[in-house]
């Protein structure tokens, strides 16, 4: 049995209701026994949606379905998510499974199939037998309620060791609105999302085009800044739903993403998605360390991000962290292979506040014993100055790489 992450919260937050959102989850036996693995979310009529989907060239049929709906500007009446089976690389059977799932949900919710958004996560390459859980899905129609957030978060888990939830209350033009979010992810976590699902819900009256911009922007600073193992999944999905229920409280409809009245909402959304992204990393398969990699002094933010991910994805760096070995030469290696310009003679590295390297060599004040003691911490910071004096900077979050990661993934299908 997989050990619970050392970073799992002592208690889970109780999320408030979001007007126009009701949820239900059930045990459908898709892959797991004795745990919820099927989620239905119902939206009030007229709910808008924006999203960010995997960049994988082998996307699942559910991803293609959502991409088509987003491109056509459809409203959302329902969201159906299953865990245990990704329904990816399953040919026409996978496409048929998507259409049948949408059809069943549409019949029970009284909407068109094209108003049903879908996501699947789990094993790749195995057909999803919708007939095996069709009755369970139909039964969820009568079970939805506005407070089933923990059940929803548990239903989308695969190798996760704890459910991931977050909520923020903020204002638009002085009127209170709510944002709730649930996410899953533990392995196959890399930039441009990963085997990672996140669903965000607000009662703000925001149109689909604006939601698309907001979702793209917030994903860029959160879910696209995390990595556990550098693998990008076939099923990555982040969807941001807005029911508009707060319109009745006087929240104005805003269409311009640069409208100053959106500033507090943007900040709250970014804070929430970063919270969820950190939870995903903190549940990384087999982890013992939560690691922040911060780079500055590069020509551009993109260059800084390339350096940061080169460090964060390096197996040699990650195994050194697992062994609590301050092997800073591996940081030098990872910086050098990032493929962007640096100045080796001005490059500088720190472990937390401990100076490690500068001026093209080890820092004169570096003490190996001090660095080794620092490496025993649960949370680590690796700082790099690229040496160019530029404004380019980036921060990413990652884990160490342990035998636990191998054990989990070697046995994933058994």
From TrEMBL:
<feature type="active site" description="Nucleophile">
    <location>
        <position position="195"/>
    </location>
</feature>
<dbReference type="GO" id="GO:0004358">
    <property type="term" value="F:L-glutamate N-acetyltransferase activity, acting on acetyl-L-ornithine as donor"/>
</dbReference>
<feature type="binding site">
    <location>
        <position position="414"/>
    </location>
    <ligand>
        <name>substrate</name>
    </ligand>
</feature>
<dbReference type="InterPro" id="IPR042195">
    <property type="entry name" value="ArgJ_beta_C"/>
</dbReference>
<feature type="site" description="Cleavage; by autolysis">
    <location>
        <begin position="194"/>
        <end position="195"/>
    </location>
</feature>
<comment type="pathway">
    <text>Amino-acid biosynthesis; L-arginine biosynthesis; L-ornithine and N-acetyl-L-glutamate from L-glutamate and N(2)-acetyl-L-ornithine (cyclic): step 1/1.</text>
</comment>
<feature type="site" description="Involved in the stabilization of negative charge on the oxyanion by the formation of the oxyanion hole">
    <location>
        <position position="121"/>
    </location>
</feature>
<feature type="binding site">
    <location>
        <position position="285"/>
    </location>
    <ligand>
        <name>substrate</name>
    </ligand>
</feature>
<keyword id="KW-0068">Autocatalytic cleavage</keyword>
<dbReference type="GO" id="GO:0006526">
    <property type="term" value="P:L-arginine biosynthetic process"/>
</dbReference>
<keyword id="KW-0963">Cytoplasm</keyword>
<comment type="similarity">
    <text>Belongs to the ArgJ family.</text>
</comment>
<feature type="binding site">
    <location>
        <position position="184"/>
    </location>
    <ligand>
        <name>substrate</name>
    </ligand>
</feature>
<keyword id="KW-0028">Amino-acid biosynthesis</keyword>
<feature type="binding site">
    <location>
        <position position="195"/>
    </location>
    <ligand>
        <name>substrate</name>
    </ligand>
</feature>
<dbReference type="InterPro" id="IPR016117">
    <property type="entry name" value="ArgJ-like_dom_sf"/>
</dbReference>
<dbReference type="InterPro" id="IPR002813">
    <property type="entry name" value="Arg_biosynth_ArgJ"/>
</dbReference>
<keyword id="KW-0055">Arginine biosynthesis</keyword>
<dbReference type="GO" id="GO:0006592">
    <property type="term" value="P:ornithine biosynthetic process"/>
</dbReference>
<comment type="subunit">
    <text>Heterotetramer of two alpha and two beta chains.</text>
</comment>
<comment type="function">
    <text>Catalyzes two activities which are involved in the cyclic version of arginine biosynthesis: the synthesis of N-acetylglutamate from glutamate and acetyl-CoA as the acetyl donor, and of ornithine by transacetylation between N(2)-acetylornithine and glutamate.</text>
</comment>
<dbReference type="GO" id="GO:0004042">
    <property type="term" value="F:L-glutamate N-acetyltransferase activity"/>
</dbReference>
<keyword id="KW-0012">Acyltransferase</keyword>
<feature type="binding site">
    <location>
        <position position="158"/>
    </location>
    <ligand>
        <name>substrate</name>
    </ligand>
</feature>
<dbReference type="GO" id="GO:0005737">
    <property type="term" value="C:cytoplasm"/>
</dbReference>
<dbReference type="Pfam" id="PF01960">
    <property type="entry name" value="ArgJ"/>
</dbReference>
<keyword id="KW-0511">Multifunctional enzyme</keyword>
<keyword id="KW-0808">Transferase</keyword>
<feature type="binding site">
    <location>
        <position position="409"/>
    </location>
    <ligand>
        <name>substrate</name>
    </ligand>
</feature>
<comment type="pathway">
    <text>Amino-acid biosynthesis; L-arginine biosynthesis; N(2)-acetyl-L-ornithine from L-glutamate: step 1/4.</text>
</comment>
<feature type="site" description="Involved in the stabilization of negative charge on the oxyanion by the formation of the oxyanion hole">
    <location>
        <position position="122"/>
    </location>
</feature>
<protein>
    <recommendedName>
        <fullName>Arginine biosynthesis bifunctional protein ArgJ</fullName>
        <ecNumber>2.3.1.35</ecNumber>
        <ecNumber>2.3.1.1</ecNumber>
    </recommendedName>
</protein>
């Amino acid at each position: 049995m997989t050990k619970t992450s050392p970073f799992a919260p002592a208690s889970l937050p109780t999320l408030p209701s979001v007007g126009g959102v009701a949820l239900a989850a059930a045990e459908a036996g898709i892959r797991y026994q004795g745990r919820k693995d099927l989620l239905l979310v119902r939206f009030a009529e007229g709910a808008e949606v924006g999203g960010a989907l995997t960049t994988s060239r082998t996307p699942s049929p559910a991803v293609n379905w959502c991409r088509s709906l987003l491109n056509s500007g459809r409203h959302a009446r329902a969201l159906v998510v299953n865990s245990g089976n990704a329904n990816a690389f399953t040919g026409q059977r996978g496409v048929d499974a998507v259409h049948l799932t949408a059809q069943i949900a549409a019949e029970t919710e009284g909407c068109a199939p094209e108003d049903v958004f879908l996501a699947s996560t789990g094993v790749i390459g195995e057909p999803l037998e919708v007939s095996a859980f069709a009755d369970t899905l139909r039964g969820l129609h009568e079970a939805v309620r506005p407070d089933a957030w923990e059940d929803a978060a548990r239903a989308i888990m695969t190798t996760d060791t704890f459910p991931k939830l977050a909520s923020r209350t903020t204002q638009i033009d002085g009127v209170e609105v709510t944002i709730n979010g649930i996410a899953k992810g533990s392995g196959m976590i890399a930039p441009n999302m990963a085997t990672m699902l996140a669903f965000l819900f607000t009662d703000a009256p925001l149109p689909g085009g604006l939601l698309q911009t907001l979702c793209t922007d917030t994903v860029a600073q959160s879910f696209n800044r995390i990595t556990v193992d550098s693998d990008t999944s076939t099923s990555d999905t982040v969807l941001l739903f807005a029911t508009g229920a707060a319109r009745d409280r006087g929240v104005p409809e805003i269409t311009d993403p640069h409208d100053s009245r959106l500033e507090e909402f943007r900040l709250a959304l970014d804070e929430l998605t970063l919270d969820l992204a950190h939870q995903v990393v903190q549940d990384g398969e087999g982890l013992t360390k939560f690691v922040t990699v911060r780079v500055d002094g590069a020509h551009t933010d993109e260059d800084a991000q390339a350096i940061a991910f080169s460090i964060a994805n390096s197996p040699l760096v990650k195994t050194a962290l697992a062994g609590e070995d301050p092997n800073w030469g591996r940081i030098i290696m990872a910086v050098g292979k990032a493929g962007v310009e640096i100045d080796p003679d001005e490059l500088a590295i720190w472990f937390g506040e401990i100076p490690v390297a500068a001026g093209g060599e080890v820092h004169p004040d570096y003490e190996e014993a001090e660095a080794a003691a620092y490496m025993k911490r649960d949370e680590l910071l690796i700082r790099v100055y690229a040496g160019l004096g530029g404004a380019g900077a980036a921060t990413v979050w990652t884990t160490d790489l342990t035998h636990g990661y191998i054990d989990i993934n070697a046995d994933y299908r058994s």
